[in-house]
Design goal:
Helix 1 runs parallel beside helix 11, helix 2 packs across helix 9 and helix 10 runs parallel beside helix 12. The strands form three sheets. This protein has a seven-stranded mixed β-sheet, with helices on both faces. The protein has a three-stranded antiparallel β-sheet with strand order 9-12-11. It has a two-stranded parallel sheet with strand order 1-10. It starts with about 25 loop residues before the first helix and ends with a helix. The protein is about 40% helix and about 15% strand. It is α/β, with parallel strands linked by helices and about 400 residues long. The structure holds pyridoxal-5'-phosphate. Pyridoxal-5'-phosphate binds next to helix 4. Pyridoxal-5'-phosphate (PLP) binds next to helix 4.
């Protein structure tokens, strides 16, 4: 019989930074939506940041085949050489740029890529500039390394993307990097390559680096977006198989590092996670086949149809969409004119209309309480139903 000791005299250890890592409001909302569904309520989901399609057939077959062939061990830390080459080929084709495979690191999701990028750049106490509103996890990748996330308010007039003047206002000599997203979450807005080049030049002149999160590349509508690598070779590029390639649960992404960082990135990959998941890497090899690409394009078309339905429908309901979303699968909508703040509107719409959306508060503090994010990751029929319910609820 094991006897546990008496009550310890001092509380168990707990990292101080934990207090600064906030949960997402949307998680609470999602849990509540699931609870309501378990009780038989029908909920229209417009809060979820992942494609509603299952992973494309050729990818699943490739993973299963590779498992049957016994590919169940670790891969090299940087990823399967064939996959790194395939990603390099993808840049050549989609952005007309030659990226050596040695600079491409296959990671556990874009999340793993962000973790490695921050570990390459950041020492304790150093700062990283982050557009607000923006992807909320970025500040925690910085905090996790005892860095200081610096929120840079960005305006609707500039598509919620940072200008040099925005960055200048928050610049400090301890800044080592800025992370921007294009297309961005939660706004779906893109940054012109010329602007990305200007931001990179501005940062490099001050001894800092630009990290561009291109996770929503491929999911653009009416704009032909090339990678930032097409204009500058020495930016850090974060990307993923999660969104365009529809593989969220497979946990696979990649990081492109500037020349000179290859050795350090390899050491970090070896030590932090050994390698990205092997079956997922074999599945990802099939992403670049004609059959899979045809499927991805068909899905992109569906997202486009959904955006083109939802945007005017929301405006008709009285939401403001101050910056046109040209990518990803999000609409960042101002609900101020409706007389609601985003958090109350999200809660009430869920409870009273059965529509789940995300409050803007999850994406920062720059006027975000006036906003909500709607994800068009449900079928067109369900989006119609969601709009119908919102219209009826607002009218009552
Ligand atoms: C902007 C952005 N970056 C990174 C991620 C992380 O993606 P993953 O780790 O699934 O590749 C997400 C997920 O929603 C995202 O929206």
């Amino acid at each position: 019989m094991v006897r546990h000791g008496s009550t310890p005299e001092r509380p168990p250890p707990r990292a101080a930074r934990l207090g600064e890592i906030q949960p997402f409001h949307v998680m609470q909302l999602l849990n509540r939506a699931r609870e309501l569904e378990a009780r038989g309520r029908d909920i229209v989901h417009m809060e979820i940041g992942e494609p509603d399609f299952p992973t494309a057939g050729p990818l699943v077959s490739a993973a299963v085949d590779s498992l049957h062939r016994g590919n169940t061990g670790y891969t090299p830390a940087g990823g399967l050489p064939t996959l790194r080459e395939a990603i390099a080929g993808h840049y050549a084709e989609s952005s007309g740029v030659d990226v050596p495979a040695e600079r491409i690191f296959v990671t556990p999701g874009a999340s793993g890529a962000l973790m490695v990028a921050m570990a390459l750049l950041l020492d304790s106490g150093q700062r990283v500039l982050l557009p607000d509103p923006g992807y909320p996890c970025n500040r925690n990748f910085v905090r996790h390394l005892d860095g200081v996330p610096v929120s840079v308010p960005v305006a609707a007039e500039t598509g919620f993307q940072p200008t040099l003047a925005d960055l200048e206002r928050y610049w400090h000599e301890d800044c080592v990097a800025a992370i921007v997203g294009s297309p961005a979450n939660p706004t779906g807005t893109v940054m012109a390559l010329s602007q990305l080049a200007a931001v990179r030049d501005w940062l490099v002149a001050r001894g800092a680096a630009l990290v561009v999160d291109e996770i929503y590349h491929g999911l653009t509508y009416g704009v032909d977006l090339r990678s930032a690598l097409a204009v500058r070779d020495d930016v850090f590029i974060v990307n993923s198989f999660s969104k365009y390639f529809g593989m969220t649960g497979w946990r696979l992404g990649w990081l492109v590092v500037p020349p000179g960082y290859e050795g350090a990135a390899m050491r970090l990959a070896q030590n932090l996670y050994i390698a990205a998941p092997t079956p997922s890497q074999h599945a990802a090899l099939a992403c670049f086949t004609l059959q899979a690409r045809t499927e991805f394009e068909a899905r992109r078309q569906l997202f486009l149809e959904r955006r083109d339905f939802l945007m005017p429908a929301l405006e008709e309901l009285g939401f403001g969409i101050p910056a046109r979303p040209e990518g990803a699968f999000y609409i960042y909508a101002d609900c101020g004119a409706l007389g609601w703040d985003g958090a109350t509107l999200s809660t009430r719409l869920l409870e009273e209309a059965g529509v789940a959306i995300t409050p803007g508060l999850d994406f920062g503090s720059n006027g975000t309480d006036r906003f909500v994010r709607l994800a068009y990751t449900s079928s067109l029929e369900r989006l119609h139903e969601g709009v119908r319910r919102m219209r009826a609820w607002l009218a009552s």
